[in-house]
Specification:
single chain; alpha/beta; Rossmann fold; 10 helices; 5 strands
Length: about 250
């Protein structure tokens, strides 16, 4: 398997693609996703965990709003993982993650995830490298456990360029609708860009090799949303789900 190297992967879509055409495709995919989610919920045989990772301003919130716009809220939940609470810090790093995995019939979206504990912890050296390597193994075992319980896992890294990230962070200073998102610490974290890229590369290459990451060019929202919607629909259709029939007494 070829190793991931984010520096060699484009953050922009291929040249020549038509934005309007792909936005139309995404609309059709979100409608299809809504129907597939209904069957998933009704059959209650599988569950789907979607992991969204990316640097600040890579567009995780926007993906959730757009791609899942046609989903019945009863069958989908979103969990944003922020700085661990005092209670969470007294447990192992997967404790707060495991209690948020989806039950059968549900779609669970992680806005950030257990991968924070091998990314930000490594970059800031809050834990040593040997601890990080052991956590890779724990993550692999955790994800394999979910797979054995018929939870399908899709992992997306929203690959935004540093230039585009800075443009979006600056926009938060001028757009009244986005000012609430502004955090001066985001600029400081961006200064560690190369360290973050190295940490992500290693996480992608050593965690769950049978569950390859989807590296999504994220500089253009319309292309990013299309790729993610397309992949989710593809995976759900591969399950060949069907609505349960009336049971005869």
């Amino acid at each position: 398997m070829q190793k991931v190297n984010l520096k060699s992967i484009a953050a922009l879509p291929p040249k020549g693609l038509n934005k309007d055409e792909y936005e139309d495709k995404t609309e059709k995919l979100t409608d299809e996703l809504g129907e597939l989610q209904n069957v998933l919920y009704a059959q209650s045989k599988y569950s789907l965990l979607i992991v969204l990772q990316g640097m600040d301003a890579s567009g995780k919130d926007g993906v959730i709003k757009k791609v899942f716009s046609g989903i019945n809220p009863m069958g989908c939940r979103v969990k944003a993982f922020k700085k661990p609470t005092e209670e969470e810090m007294t447990h192992d790093f997967l404790w707060r993650i495991h209690k948020n995995v989806p039950e059968k019939g549900m779609i669970q979206i992680f806005n950030r995830s257990h991968y924070e504990d091998v990314i930000i912890q490594r970059v800031h050296k809050w834990v040593d490298i040997n601890t990080i390597k052991r956590r890779y193994d724990h993550i692999n075992a955790f994800e394999n456990l979910l797979l054995e319980n018929d939870t399908k896992i899709l992992k997306f890294y929203l690959h935004v360029s540093q230039k585009e990230q800075m443009d979006r962070l600056q926009e938060r200073l001028s757009d009244p609708k986005k000012m609430w998102k502004y955090n001066p610490n985001d600029i400081k974290e961006s200064e560690r860009w190369d360290e973050y890229m190295e940490a992500y590369d290693d996480a992608f290459n050593y965690c769950s090799p049978e569950l390859a990451w989807n590296i999504v060019p994220a500089d253009k929202n319309w292309f990013k949303e299309y790729l993610i919607a397309s992949k989710i629909v593809e995976v759900l259709k591969s399950l060949r789900m069907e609505y349960p029939k009336i049971r005869k007494e």
